[in-house]
């Protein structure tokens, strides 16, 4: 049973926050999670977007080259991780589908991101916890209440749980990190 799950989201590597890795190291050290879930958009793939791309940003190949060292650091920190398929993460596959390229011609996420098979991608994921099942997905709907209800999951305690997480846990975390970083030239101003 999973007691402590670290949820990471929308890192958008290589356009990630400069303190992503130090922050996650501190989170891991303080909370000692027994499971890691990345909700998606682990890499940005801006150059492959279906939207207009900024011509001054790196090409798709250069963006991947810039992403790989950060992905390696993330894998070293979290050698086992569940990741969810996402709009940015799946751009390679969506582009291939649009242009009629069969999946057999494509590399798996693990291969092009050069990570072990201990990183597992999922369309969605349900994890059993001491408080009941928790469902994870990346952007299936804006109405999470309706989605949870359609899956037979309770949302009765959500407002209190979210409130506790945002006020008590998060502020406590930032206080612990600030205390640890004080005098070290830490990442918080």
Structural class by helix and strand composition: alpha/beta
Beta-strand proportion: 5-15%
Query: What's the mean pLDDT score?
Result: 81
> Roughly what percent helix?
25-40%
> What would the principal axes of the Cα set say about the shape?
globular
The unreliable regions are 159-170
**What does the largest sheet look like?**
4 strands, parallel
Q: In a few lines, what is going on in this structure?
A:
This protein has 189 residues and is an alpha/beta fold. The chain is built from 6 helices and 6 strands, in the order βαβαβααβββαα. It has helices at residues 20-31, 60-77, 91-98, 109-112, 144-150, 158-181; strands at residues 5-8, 35-38, 81-84, 119-122, 125-129, 132-136.
């Amino acid at each position: 049973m999973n007691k402590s799950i670290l949820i990471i989201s929308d890192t958008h590597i290589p356009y990630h926050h400069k303190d992503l890795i130090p922050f996650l190291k501190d989170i891991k050290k303080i909370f000692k999670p027994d499971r890691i879930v990345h909700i998606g958009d682990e890499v940005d793939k801006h150059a492959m977007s279906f939207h207009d791309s900024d011509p001054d940003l790196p090409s798709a190949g250069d963006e991947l080259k810039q992403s790989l060292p950060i992905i390696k650091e993330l894998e070293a920190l979290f050698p086992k991780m569940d990741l969810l398929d996402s709009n940015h993460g799946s751009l390679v596959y969506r582009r291939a589908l649009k242009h009629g390229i069969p999946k057999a011609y494509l590399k798996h996420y693990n291969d092009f991101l050069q990570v072990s098979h201990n990183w597992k991608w999922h369309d969605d994921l349900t994890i059993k916890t001491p408080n009941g099942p928790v469902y994870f997905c990346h952007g299936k709907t804006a109405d999470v209440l309706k989605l949870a209800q359609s899956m037979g999951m309770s949302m009765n305690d959500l407002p209190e749980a979210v409130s506790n997480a945002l006020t008590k846990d998060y502020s406590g975390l930032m206080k612990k990190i600030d205390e640890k970083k004080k005098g070290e030239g830490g990442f918080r101003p």
